[in-house]
Amino acid sequence: DVTLYFITQVGAEDTIAQATAELLDRYAAMSDHIKVVYRDPVLYPNFVSAYTTETIYMHSVIVESERRYRVIDYYDILKYDYTDEGAQYAAYDGEAQLTSAIDYVTSDDLPVIYTLTGHGEYTLPSGFSDALTQQNFELRELTLLQSEAVPEDADGLLLLSPQSDLSEDDYDKLIRYLEGGG
Length: 182
What we know:
Elements: E1 2-7, H1 15-30, E2 34-39, E3 60-64, E4 69-72, H2 74-77, E5 78-82, E6 88-92, H3 94-106, E7 112-117, H4 126-134, E8 138-143, E9 154-158, H5 168-179
Parallel strand pairs: 1-2, 7-8, 7-9
Antiparallel strand pairs: 1-3, 3-4, 5-6
């Protein structure tokens, strides 16, 4: 069972929020396992604090199951981009965000990708890490110097342009991981 909490003041929705409300209602109509609950932040000022200490904007959605939850921020529902000429346009991403969140909160096992650290690796670009998160990959850092091996729960290992050579010990750990099916 999944609950979709729509953080909004009923009647005060903008066009995007109205489209999101309609989308939530359509999801609920398609399954008896999906329920939509409207939460007015004025009437329930402490509701979102049970999920995060960060600001949750009006017209955001909290997707929750008994396993976990995910917050879909209003500004993730409406994606802004720019053309080469500098013009701004917006694209509605509500369905992709909602589908990904429902998959996230209902999945038994989430794939884990470790990013190698300790060799001057570049930081993963936020757009790439955001895309991995939307696809429900869990990202964790791994410093091989502090580990005896690549963790068993590693579904993938990302080495992003190490700036220094790996030690022989680190190399051996990576080879064992690869030979073991990693």
